[in-house]
Amino acid sequence: MNTTPQPQRPDVSAATAQRLQDAMKRLRARLRAESGQNTTGLTLTQLGVLSSVIREGPVTAARLAVIEHVSTQAIAQSLAVLKAAGLVNSEPDPNDGRKKLMSPAPSAIELIDRILTGRETYLARAINQLVPPDERQDLEKAVELLERLADTDLSAGGAEGSGRTGGAI
Predict the structure, then answer these.
(1) At a CB cut-off of 8 Å and minimum separation 6, what does 58 contact?
(2) φ and ψ at 84, to 5 degrees?
(3) Cβ(90)–Cβ(59) below 8 Å
(4) CA atoms 34, 36, 39, 44: torsion sign
(5) How sure is the predictor about 57, in pLDDT bands with cuts at 50, 70 and 90?
(6) Which residue, of 98, 105, 124, 125, is most buried by count of CB atoms within 10 Å of its CB?
């Protein structure tokens, strides 16, 4: 009987997870910089709310809070900033005059389009310059894996897709 303790192997899964997290963080920061997002004067949360107003509008603040998974107070704070910047408009809900419907100003749509186009342009240029043609299929596989990871819901103990289809900025 061998009673010699076995050497502990590093947890490759944890190390890989950390590398992936670090790489995604750096890429997100790069995309924010390259797209001009950092120069808008808006926080990531405010831009996310603005994207939801564009995608869902006209929409109530209560519905935005559900979509963004935040409190109605947090939505109210973001909407106040967006209104002051002239990026969202509010009007009474025709079905319930006590509620306000938020809709995007044309400048909001232009801003979000500019940010998203900037990200896409940067990524396309970076891929064209960095990834040789013989590795493009590897990149496609990596994207598929990332999409699967993003869709995985482990909360129920399984690895089923969450079905979440967000368009957050």
Answers:
(1) 91, 101, 102, 103
(2) -60, -30
(3) no
(4) negative
(5) confident
(6) 105
